[in-house]
Design brief:
This protein has helices spanning 2-8, 24-27, 32-48, 58-72, 142-157, 179-186, 188-191, 246-258, 268-281, 283-289, 292-305, 307-313, 350-361, 383-394, 410-413, 430-433, 445-463, and strands at 76-82, 85-92, 101-106, 128-129, 132-134, 166-171, 195-205, 213-221, 223-232, 236-237, 316-323, 331-332, 335-344, 366-373, 376-377, 398-404, 419-428, 442-444. Strands 1, 2, 3, 6, 7, 8, 15, 16 and 17 form a nine-stranded mixed beta sheet that branches. The chain has a four-stranded antiparallel beta sheet with strand order 11-13-9-14. Strands 4-5-18 form a three-stranded antiparallel beta sheet. Helix content is 38%, strand content 24%. The protein contains 17 helices and 18 strands.
Length: 467
């Protein structure tokens, strides 16, 4: 009886429909050794363009990419919306029978500490050594930017018939204030894309099981609620502890947040990803992961032990810093505060999140909103998502939907009705992943070749037209 019950609880995912357009005849026409070299050279040169944010100077990045587009005969516009801050928009025209597809990237990169990098692999060197291209932005996200640009270039070179316009959108200021994508949103009616491929969805080698590479394709993102949590009390002398002092109240509030009762949930997206992993894995482990009842009984506790998967199942509250003014150790201040980075699941409103935190810390603690944005979600019953999955499966790997615990520029686009997916066709080890925003960031030249091949194939299958 138990086996019958569990079998009845299995979550069966129907295979995606057959691709309307085959990409094989397109990709077979490319010399991939030469394509790898071209991608590596272009990324190396792109990394050398200093677009470190702050202050960005993304106009330099846009001008660099514009030079490549000029050589390919692809029209573009550079929108310098602030001095030195610019977006680039290029368009490859199709028949227009379907709404355009947007290949989105950002040209700015985060700061680096050159003294902590190898002398021959500096952040802005673009060094090509040991089969890798090294430098800030190799992974986040100049590498994908070059892959997207070359995808557009190959569509043009091979004269691929398209049912949709393909738009290359390279925005400024993703890493700090999101000014570039907000500028693009203002003119989205002119851009007109119904679908977007953006960062996220990297291939993770040995993600859950050794020997298995998983692409968690980002279909949504948690919202963020950034708060300043303020405690107030009577000031005094540091030699004599007293009740109701501001620092003590703040400590109590933080303790209450850390000790709060959690209500972890395996979202529909995460469950679908686990099912895909289980189908590929097979055996007893695969059997368990394909059945929601067993996932909640046996797998959820293990997922909670991992910080990343734990964050995917809860609304997080993270103390990231403190402010208390400039005072000496012998002075008890009347006001102290902590900074909170809270990430909320799609469907949870900002007001609901703040009310839940206020209930835990008490009304004597003030919560000041620094910034807030609700999460959102795209459907994964969509032909673009299915085209992405087919490319991952063609490589012998696993793909499934996931809600990102962070957020990208896609979060600004979904409220416009855009179906946005995070998919970067690079396969990375845990060590590679550790270089995001860190030291010794790099991407393999093999990944650059793979990236162009997989993205081009997905775009042809989604946006190609019958010749």
């Amino acid at each position: 009886m138990l086996s019958i019950l569990l079998t009845g609880c299995a979550l069966h995912v129907a295979p995606p429909p057959a691709a309307p357009i085959s990409s094989a005849g397109i990709t077979d026409r490319i010399n991939w050794a030469e394509a790898r070299e071209e991608a590596s050279v272009l990324l190396s040169d792109y990394i050398k363009v200093d677009t470190t944010n702050p202050s960005g100077n993304e106009l330099l990045g846009a001008q660099f990419l514009a030079g490549i587009l000029d050589a390919e005969g692809i029209p573009y516009q550079i929108d310098e919306f602030l001095p030195g801050r610019a977006n680039l928009i290029a368009r490859l025209e199709g028949t227009g029978s379907e709404a355009p597809l947007c290949l989105l990237s950002h040209s700015d990169v985060v700061t680096a500490e050159p003294e902590k990098w190898d002398v021959d692999r500096q952040p802005l060197s673009g060094a090509r050594l040991d089969g890798y291209v090294w430098g800030r932005g190799a992974l986040d996200m100049k590498g994908m930017g070059i892959v997207e640009l070359l995808t557009m270039a190959w569509l043009k070179r091979l004269d691929v018939p398209l049912s949709r316009d393909i738009i290359l959108l390279v925005v400024a200021d993703e890493e700090v204030d999101g000014l570039g994508i907000q500028r693009a949103v203002e003119t989205w009616d002119d851009i007109g894309c119904s679908h977007v491929i953006n960062e996220g969805g990297l291939g993770l080698i040995d993600m859950l099981f050794e020997g298995q590479t998983v692409y968690p394709v980002s279909v949504g993102e948690k919202g963020n609620v950034w708060l300043k949590m303020v405690a107030r009390g009577e000031p005094g002398h540091g030699s004599t502890p007293r009740p109701n002092e501001a620092p003590g109240q703040l400590i109590e509030a933080i303790t209450a947040l850390n000790d709060r009762k959690l209500s972890p949930e395996v979202s529909d997206a995460l469950m679908a990803l686990l099912v895909s992993i289980g189908e590929d894995k097979g055996g007893l482990s695969g059997y368990v992961m394909q059945r929601p009842v067993l996932v909640n009984m046996l797998v959820k506790p293990k997922l909670l032990d991992n910080p990343l998967t734990r964050a995917a199942m809860i609304n997080t509250v993270h103390v990231t810093g403190f402010t208390s003014g400039n005072h000496k150790p012998n002075v008890v201040p009347s006001e102290v505060s902590a900074l909170l980075d809270c990430r909320i699941q799609p469907g949870v409103t900002v007001d609901e999140a703040i009310a839940a935190i206020q209930k835990i810390v008490g009304l004597d603690i003030e919560l000041q909103v620094i910034s807030a944005r609700e999460g959102n979600l795209s459907t994964w019953d969509d032909p673009l998502y299915e085209a992405i999955v087919r490319q991952v499966q063609a490589e012998g790997h696993v793909a499934g939907p996931v809600i990102s615990v962070g957020f990208t520029d896609s979060i600004f686009l979904r409220p416009l009705g855009v179906q946005a997916y995070g998919f970067v066709p690079f396969e990375l080890t845990a060590e590679d992943m550790g270089t995001f925003h860190g030291n010794r960031e790099r991407v393999s030249e093999e990944n650059l070749e793979r990236g162009v091949r997989m993205l081009l194939s997905a775009v042809v299958e989604f946006a190609g037209a019958e010749s």
